[in-house]
Amino acid sequence: MSGQPTGRLRRLAETARAPVTIRVDGVPVTALAGDTVLVAVLAAGRVLRQADFGGGDRAGFCLMGACQDCWMWTAAGERLRACTTPVAAGMDLATQTPGEDTWPAHA
Amino acid sequence: MAGPRVIIIGAGPAGVRAAETLVAAGLVPTVIDEGQRAGGQVYRRPPAGFTRPAAQVYGADAAKAQALHARFDALAIDYRPETLAWAVRDQTLHIARDGVAEALPFDALILATGATDRLAPVAGWTLPGCYSLGGAQIALKAQACSIGARPVFVGTGPLLYLVAWQYVKAGVAVAAVLDTAPRGAQLRALPDLMLRPGLLARGLAMQVRLRAAGVTMAQGVTPLAIAGAHEVTGLRYRTAAGVERTIAGDAVAMGFHLRPETQLADLAGCPFVFDEALQQWRPEADRDGRTPRAGVYVAGDGLRILGADAAEVSGQLAARAVMADAGIASNARETARLYTRKARLERFARGLATAFPWPAQMAAATPDAVMVCRCEGITAGDLRDVAGDKNAPELNRAKALSRIGMGRCQGRFCGPAAAEILAAARGVPLRDVGRLRSAAPVKPLPMATRTAPTTEPDA
Amino acid sequence: MNRADVIIIGGGIMGASAAFFLRQHGQSVILLERGLIGQQASGVNFGNVRRQGRHLHQLPLANRAREIWLRLPELIGEDCELVTAGHLRVAHTSEMADRMAAYADDSRAYGLDLEMLSANALRDRFPYLGTQLVAGCHDATGGHANPRLTAPAIGRAAARAGADVREQTEVTGIAHQAGEFTVAIAGGASVCAPVLLITAGAWAGKLSAQFGEPVPLAVHGPQMTVTEPLPYRIAPTIGVSTPHLHETVYFRQVKRGNIVCGGFARGPASAETNRATVLPEAILGQMEQLRRVMPGFARVQTIRSWSGIESYLPDDCPIMGPSVTTPGLFYAFGFCGAGFQIGPGVGAVMAELIATGRTDTPIEPYAIGRFAR
């Protein structure tokens, strides 16, 4: 069973799991229950976040919560580590840095 | 029944066997696990709801993985999953879960914190599509995903061949397996590797099958650059014969064996020793895993990279040391048996280090423009500048002046190469530049974390 | 060359600055540092470059230091990441607001131009601040710099200017005879000079005691934490004005985006073992106080902490000036966690005092004689 062609990661098996709908950069994405956020985002897309320094996209590295290269913003200005966070329905994620109304949000 | 309060950090093979040993002696240890389910990394369990049989997930290790999981599931312990142990001070461990912090006092602390891949940077290694070997394996094992349609595997170590083979078995078109270890290194290591003939045979068989599957294989390789402007498009490398080649691929999996997770041992005040064979620092410990810090024990890859089987032995030994130090008797014959097994596994591990050496020269010669610190975007040239003009004699000063190792990962992924670059720039042996010191929190701690309100009994 | 006009013991920001400015006066200098320049308090402090909040008698020194900070690129070739985007003090209570306002009035005569902000004005200007803050006081000229870089940069400039800067050089003894100081160094060598300046921070007390001038020097460890890199959106250094130590938190966002934070407690430190500890409880307590000042902290992570050895005197004032007992001996140490901004000024003043015999910048409150029995 092949993954969606636009995604970086390819699903090889375990595709009979319940679908979970999230949004990434405002666009609905269908993930599967049990995906990490990293897999949910990268099975459909190609980028998790922008590098803090030196420019460029990042798409994770170690997948075990050690490299800290997969921290993402949510649309509401929260932070989560994509490889260790299970995907949940309704997540609203951003691969780009939010504006100052989002963080540091108006108290 | 009051016994010593024991906390074990890590629920991989070392932590699970330590817990089991203590439970058998009537204790109820607390086990702190950052993961959702016990198993650590090598025997990582997919989330609930995944249905592949163990043989498909773990291959030849299926029986060991299932046995370990069964052992864990049978234990009556205080299990804390999805919990970060972020600091330790005196006899108190500081943990956090879901934004709630707790301080756990202990009489004995067993650090079974495991390992990560050991990385040396290659130009382009921060491009989307480049993952560590461990990361590539976790994608497959725990999420049933491939990191790409046509991954290139590069680096050295048994994991290089294992993960590539797991990918091929899963039906992925692996482009190449490129080993930096020189041709002949495996041959030189044979006397030590022959101590585990089954494992050795498996390793050789994997290499044969990879080749038979049409995967480009090469040894003595020098990776030059991961190609691509915005994401991985391939890998450029130099063969042992000096020929430059480029192999196309949409993902790279890289790694050079493993490095121990030692941040909590550092915070606990454990002294470190420089392991000449593995060319890296590790906590000082006796053969049972006792550190010079009373009450603190280390086990498994978090002490020294010896692999999962050794971790199971090491976890048992550490637990036995805890018991002995608490005046609880244990079977001396069993302990002796464990020592014998561990000695064999140590020799095998030495063989692996010979067969798949850390590419010290390649790391030391990282070109100036290559990013070494992924978190902070610091290049090898930046590091050489502070080694020279700014006279940084060791890693922590180099960190203060260049920012290398100041990022979220606290030097886990840049530290090994940074040490080589600095030592070469200063013209000193590797051990003389020291090691990056850890700081609390050992991993990012949410600033929303609150102390759990203590529930007071009504007056 | 093992002789000089001046020997300086202690290579923090005070010693390095003094070495630099002594060279401007044409004095030859040997600077002895046991470890590496700027490795102790000078390198671990919060990095506030502020005048607001200092004792009024310290403002002339702070003013002089400010002029040097602004000229750093010209003087030493580096800016040490100095940012002058303001220093804001905030208050949780109207009582503290009143005190800030009184200070704003009193400090005007010393050249400070502080602006009091009501709760509403505070939130208009700085919309990320917590709604419970009752007032703020803003110094547009305040700011911050990178303490890890500063003393080392000044030390290098001193060396380029001809100072003999010796790192990894431990002093094992000091003798004084016939108007000459002979300082013995580990390894057997010694250096001589008619003038000795002690800028050895937490370790200076032992030296002043040797010359019959003990002082009640206490050491504490600052509790410093830093966040992950974040979008650069917070311009001023921000700190809480409060009589309660646990509420005294402060933070500054660097251009790269990390927010450096400090306060809540003073941690254990030892000038004997050279160790200082960040208390895990302090990390948590600091976070709670920071969330009060800026709720947005609740969304981000702390990634690291550090401490160091800062030395304090009971009257919250440093030791600066000549020895009472020994001609040719001078001191500048014990800066009570507030030495970073004034550091370059301290160096300039001590150099001036040594080279010319006087200084116009008032330092009488800091005389070591105030602790004489």
Secondary-structure topology with pairs:
The complex is a heterotrimer of chains A (107), B (459) and C (373).
Chain A: E1 10-11, E2 19-24, E3 27-32, H1 37-42, E4 49-50, E5 57-58, E6 71-74, E7 79-81, E8 92-94
Parallel strand pairs in A: 2-8
Antiparallel strand pairs in A: 2-3, 4-5, 6-7, 6-8
Chain B: E1 6-9, H1 13-24, E2 30-32, H2 54-58, H3 62-73, E3 78-80, E4 84-89, E5 92-97, E6 100-105, E7 108-111, E8 115-117, E9 130-132, H4 133-143, E10 145-146, E11 151-156, H5 158-169, E12 176-179, H6 185-193, H7 197-212, E13 216-218, E14 222-227, E15 234-238, E16 244-248, E17 251-256, E18 258-260, H8 263-267, E19 272-275, E20 280-283, E21 296-298, H9 308-325, H10 332-355, H11 360-364, E22 371-373, E23 378-379, H12 380-388, H13 395-402, H14 415-426, E24 445-446, E25 450-451
Parallel strand pairs in B: 1-2, 1-7, 2-3, 6-25, 7-21, 9-17, 11-12, 11-17, 12-13
Antiparallel strand pairs in B: 4-5, 5-6, 8-18, 14-15, 15-16, 19-20, 22-23
Helix pairs in contact in B: 1-9, 4-5, 5-7, 6-10, 9-10, 12-13, 12-14
Chain C: E1 6-9, H1 13-24, E2 29-32, H2 41-44, E3 48-49, H3 59-70, H4 72-76, E4 87-91, H5 94-108, E5 115-118, H6 119-125, E6 135-139, E7 143-144, H7 147-160, E8 164-166, E9 171-177, E10 180-185, E11 190-193, E12 195-198, H8 204-210, E13 218-227, E14 237-240, E15 249-253, E16 259-267, E17 269-270, E18 275-276, H9 280-293, E19 301-306, E20 310-312, E21 319-322, E22 329-333, H10 343-356
Parallel strand pairs in C: 1-2, 1-12, 2-8, 4-14, 12-22
Antiparallel strand pairs in C: 3-7, 4-6, 5-6, 9-10, 10-11, 13-16, 13-19, 13-20, 14-15, 15-16, 17-18, 21-22
Helix pairs in contact in C: 1-7, 1-10, 3-10
Describe the main β-sheet of chain C briefly: 9 strands, mixed
Helical content band of chain B = 25-40%
Shape field of chain B: globular
Q: Give the largest interface.
A: A-B, 42 and 54 residues
β-strand amount of chain B? 15-25%
Average of per-residue pLDDT values of chain B: 96
Strand content of chain C: 25-35%
**Gap between N and C termini of chain B, in Å?**
27 Å
Number of domains of chain B: 3
**Structural class from helices and strands of chain B?**
alpha/beta
CATH topology of the largest domain in chain C: FAD/NAD(P)-binding domain
Q: Output the structural class of chain C.
A: alpha+beta
CATH homologous superfamily of the largest domain in chain B?
FAD/NAD(P)-binding domain
Number of strands of chain C: 22
Flag low-confidence runs of chain C: none
Strand order of the largest sheet of chain B: 3-2-1-7-21
User: Got a strand count of chain B?
Assistant: 25
